[in-house]
Amino acid sequence: QVHLVESGGGLVQAGGSLRLSCVASGTFSELNGWAWHRQVPGKLREMVAGIVIGGPTKYADSVKGRFTISTEGATNSVNLHMNSLKPDDTAVYFCNAIVDSKGYWGQGTQVTVSS
Predict the structure, then answer these.
(1) Phi-psi category of 2—alpha, beta or left, where left has phi over 0 and alpha has psi -120 to 50?
(2) Which of 1, 61, 72, 90 has a CA 20 to 30 Å removed from the CA of 49?
(3) Burial (CB count <10 Å: 0-12, 13-18, 19+), residue 23
(4) End-to-end distance of the chain based on CA atoms, in angstroms?
């Protein structure tokens, strides 16, 4: 079983920055990739950024140039650096890990951007 724990959410003013982190723990053979998703009440969950371990990254058009996803292999963790935040970025952000070809989700962390 794999357990994901997110941290770093909070309240920030528009134009500010936040860094989200997610750590994977448990017993597994291979961590294949990571993604960050976000969800606003009443809307579908959307992928914000994704990364294949040793491979490319992918970003939603709405965050390109503002968000950066990065991994720390030694600690089985992923970060999402969010700059130039906008009120539209307000959402619950979920960490998603592909481990041994299975998907796992974190519990979510709230990000609120005030105008």
Answers:
(1) beta
(2) 1
(3) middle
(4) 40
Is residue 77 a contact partner of residue 22, using CB atoms and an 8 Å limit? yes
CA distance 87 to 76: 30
What CA–CA distance (Å, rounded) separates 90 from 69?
Answer: 18
In the numeric block, which tokens belong to residue 101?
């070809």
Is residue 78 packed enough to be buried (19+ CB in 10 Å), middle (13-18) or exposed (0-12)?
buried
Q: Kindly give the confidence (pLDDT) of every residue in the chain, 115 residues in length, as a single tens digit, with 9 standing for 90 and above.
A: 899 999 999 999 999 999 999 999 998 888 899 999 999 999 999 999 999 988 899 999 999 999 999 997 777 999 999 999 999 999 999 999 999 999 999 999 999 999 9
Residue that has been written with the tokens 């600690």 in this structure: 75
